[in-house]
Task: structure prediction
Amino acid sequence: MRREQIFIKQDVTTLSGRTGRDVVGRKERFIIGWGLLSSDELSDIIALVEQDTPLNFEVRDGDLQIKPTSVIPVIKRVTYRIPGGDYIPITQLELVEVT
Result:
């Protein structure tokens, strides 16, 4: 799993007419990867993504603690290496924080 910051920028114009850019917000992106998934597991993930509604994402694993965060799941890459096989590699699922 990877965790990244997305900076929300906005163009601003000063009183003297000079244009600049400010960071007006920040949200997080979580990127999760797997080696192999069964076709049923992949179908479950695709069903969640196709709902196109926010989900709560939370991690409690030893020292890694991520408080509940509202995210939209997006499949970034699916690679089918075993045609007709039982397992399908999926390399990236991206969870983007809803602001």
